[in-house]
Amino acid sequence: MGGISYEEALGRASAEHAVDTNDVRETATYWVFSVRGIGCCGVLVEKMTGKLVELGSDTSIDDWVWAYEQGLFEEPPRDLVVV
Length: 83
Prior knowledge:
The protein is α+β, with helices and mostly antiparallel strands. About 25% of the residues lie in helices and about 30% in strands. The chain contains 2 helices and 4 strands, in the order αββββα. It has helices at about 5-15, 60-70; strands at about 20-25, 30-35, 40-45, 50-55. It has a 4-stranded antiparallel beta sheet with strand order 1-2-3-4. β3 and β4 (about 50-55) form a beta hairpin. The longest helix is centred in the first third of the chain and has 11 residues, at about 5-15. The protein is globular, with a radius of gyration of 13 Å.
C-alpha cells in the first residue's frame, strides 16, 4: 500500500508546529492538524508522500483545504483572483 502512518504524520507536523491533537481531520489522502501559532492555522500531511503543507492564518482551515483540493498549492504557483 505504501505511504506513511498517522504516527509518522503527527511526528512531522509536531516537529514544525504546536499541534492540537484534539482537532485532527482525516480524508482518504491526507490528514489536517490544527496548530497553535502565529502565521499558521494548520498543516496538511499527504498520506502517500508524507509531504507537509503549511496552511496560512488569514482564513479558516476549511478555506485552505478547499484551495489545496482545487490544486492551488501545485507547481507552478497559481494566483486566485476574486472579482
